């Protein structure tokens, strides 16, 4: 009888139960990807940070942020260092095989961030894919994978900290940064010294997601429910505006349709 009760308890225990019992949600984030996740040494800010806070409030729990890296995103999640990973994470098949991915919440594409007035110099892969062009990418993410696949003849300059790459563009240490639509437009919107290559016709098309531990179906369902409700109430759009998330109309239309 005791064994049966014990097995029943274990059968119903899951990550969502753990979160509610402990009273706080653990969110893993890199803190280096504006405007989704930015850590200034004291506090986190950004669109996905606001979403995380909203979700914790809906679950009636507190929130705690855990610093991670792009390279350590999946290993840290698998080791249970946090309940969910957030912060401009691209949906990918290798991540799907290693974890659970939520529904996509924003469509975007790979493109280049450059100095203002230089977009015409780098508007094709052929122009960029040569040794004379210095391409800046952050290590461990999809930007690096894109550069390794399509720009392997260019001079790749790799950075541990994603925040360092836009600074390198302005300083002339690299000619361009491989990035995504929202990040590139954020930098262009907040600093007129930047230019964006192919913002209306990016090289690829993908969606952002949140990552949850493999097999945690109840937590996955709950997060997807909250994402649907945010979209229904228009809360996601308000958060985008609050975080200077400048998105082309074609992307917003596709994302919210």
Description:
The chain has 257 residues and is of the alpha/beta class. It has 2 domains: 15-107 and 207-256, Periplasmic binding protein-like II (D-Maltodextrin-Binding Protein, domain 2, 3-Layer(aba) Sandwich), CATH 3.40.190.10; 110-197, D-Maltodextrin-Binding Protein, domain 2. Helix content is 42%, strand content 24%. It has 12 helices and 14 strands. It has helices at residues 2-12, 15-22, 47-58, 73-78, 93-98, 125-128, 142-150, 164-171, 181-190, 217-233, 235-242, 249-256; strands at 24-29, 32-33, 37-39, 44-45, 62-67, 84-90, 100-101, 107-108, 110-115, 134-138, 155-159, 176-180, 194-197, 206-212. Strands 1, 5, 6, 7, 8 and 14 form a 6-stranded mixed sheet that branches. A hairpin with a 3-residue loop joins strand 2 and strand 3. The longest helix has 17 residues, at 217-233. The N and C termini lie far apart (52 Å). The model is unreliable at 5-11 and 252-257 (pLDDT under 50). Residues 24-243 form the Solute-binding protein family 3/N-terminal domain. Belongs to the bacterial solute-binding protein 3 family. This is Transporter substrate-binding domain-containing protein. Pfam families: SBP_bac_3. Keywords: Signal.
């Amino acid at each position: 009888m005791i064994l049966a009760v014990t097995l029943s308890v274990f059968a119903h225990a899951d990550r969502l139960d753990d979160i509610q019992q402990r009273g706080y949600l653990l969110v893993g984030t890199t803190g280096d990807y504006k405007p989704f996740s930015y850590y200034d040494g004291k506090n986190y800010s950004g669109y996905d940070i606001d979403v995380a806070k909203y979700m914790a409030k809906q679950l009636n729990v507190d929130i705690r942020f855990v610093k991670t890296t792009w390279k350590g995103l999946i290993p840290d999640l698998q080791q249970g260092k946090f309940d969910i990973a957030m912060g401009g994470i691209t949906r990918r098949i290798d991540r799907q095989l290693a974890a659970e991915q939520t529904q996509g919440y924003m469509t975007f594409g790979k493109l280049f961030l450059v100095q203002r007035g230089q977009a015409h110099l780098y508007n094709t892969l052929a122009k960029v894919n040569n040794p004379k062009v210095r391409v800046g990418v952050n290590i461990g993410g999809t930007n690096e994978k894109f550069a390794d696949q399509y720009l392997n003849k260019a001079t790749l300059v790799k950075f541990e900290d994603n925040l360092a790459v836009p600074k390198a563009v302005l300083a002339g240490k690299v000619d361009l940064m491989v990035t995504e639509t929202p990040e590139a437009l954020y930098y262009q919107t907040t600093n007129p010294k930047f230019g964006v290559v192919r913002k209306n016709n990016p090289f690829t098309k993908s969606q952002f997601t949140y990552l949850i531990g493999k097999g945690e179906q109840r937590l996955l369902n709950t997060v997807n429910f909250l994402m649907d409700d945010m979209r229904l109430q228009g809360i996601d759009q308000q958060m985008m505006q609050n975080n200077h998330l400048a998105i082309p109309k074609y992307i917003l239309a596709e994302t919210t349709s």
